[in-house]
# Entry
Amino acid sequence: MKRASVVLIPLILAMVAVVVLGATALPKAVQKPPTATPSATVTPTPTATITPTPTATTTPTPTVTPTSTPVVLPVGNGTAIPDLPYEVITAENVSRLREIARYGYPRLLDVYHKDPYRLTADGKTIVVGTTAGIEFYDAATQERIGGFAVPMLRRFDITPDGRFVLTQAGKTLTVWRQDGQKVQEFALEVGDAWELRSTIAISPDGALVAAQRVKTDWEAPDLLDVYRVEDGARLDTLRGEGAMFTPDGKYLASVFDGRVQLYPVAELGEGWERRLPKQNLPWADYCNLAFSPDGTLAAVARAERVDVYNVAERRLVRQISGWEEIKRERPAVQFTPQSDRVLIVTRPLYDGLGNVRVKAQAILVDIASGEWVSHEDAPQGFVYADGQAVRSFLWQAEGEIGGINQRQQRWPCLFASAGVCFCG
# Structure
């Protein structure tokens, strides 16, 4: 019995060891989990993810430069500013910006300083300078007969026959033919001159241009440069203020040393002493100067009188006076196409309240006899002699209602047939 117990004890221990080792070797996956009450699980709402757009890797199409389309503006006809189409600014169409910038009615050049009217030597054509360009009118019918655009026009001059026109726009001088064809350009800074009411002038044959030089030092003398139109070269430099060629082309007039210097055109470029004539026309402050169409006579107009000289002899041939005047208010003066009469237009006189006391007068005088052929109230606008009669021309912008700017036409305005403004 004891032996049997001793034998069984190892056997029992071996079986227990097998059971324990087997339980330990069982995988966790087959182990029975403890019983538990399941809890509800909240499923989160997924957040949308923005997928970036892929960048194109293809070669871009070359940009095509659009063809410029002219923008037609109804400048000066009184219509409203149109809706302008989209247009890319290019070198070819950038000038259109200037047209947009000056949209509106063209205006006369400032009558006090910039010579808005000229009359050809034969008295047949009136030339008008506006901010938009040059216009030609028949003096007999007063109908427009031509013209051409000059953007930002400041000053101009014409040859006595009207075949050539000299303009200043900005710092550029340009010589044009009457039909608007460009002859020559000069890139110059033109100075200011008051004595002859002109800082630029063109010779009667259109071959020479005179321009007042910019004065950088007040102590330096006033200088006037003369250029050849053919090649643009400077021919000569003169002393003087203002510029005017005589209608016969013999002299270039400028004021220097208190006198009207008449420089012989044929001697330009041959030396200072020879150019400076020994006999000149007398001059004083607040004077106007005009030449007869044939170039034989010159009129120096002061407030109280007009002196008519023989140009070749520098001799006084007629002194005209007799109107009521005010100091320094010189009249305007113009020769008739036949060079035998002179038309004088005086200033209006005002009382202490600014009312007109004496109206402006138009006086037509025979030079040989000194007789007043006609004497009447001066009409408004540009006054000129048409044969035996005194006429006036009143310019206004196309489509403008109510006439031209009244400030510009406060004084009757008259110019020499040589083309110099005498409205002060």
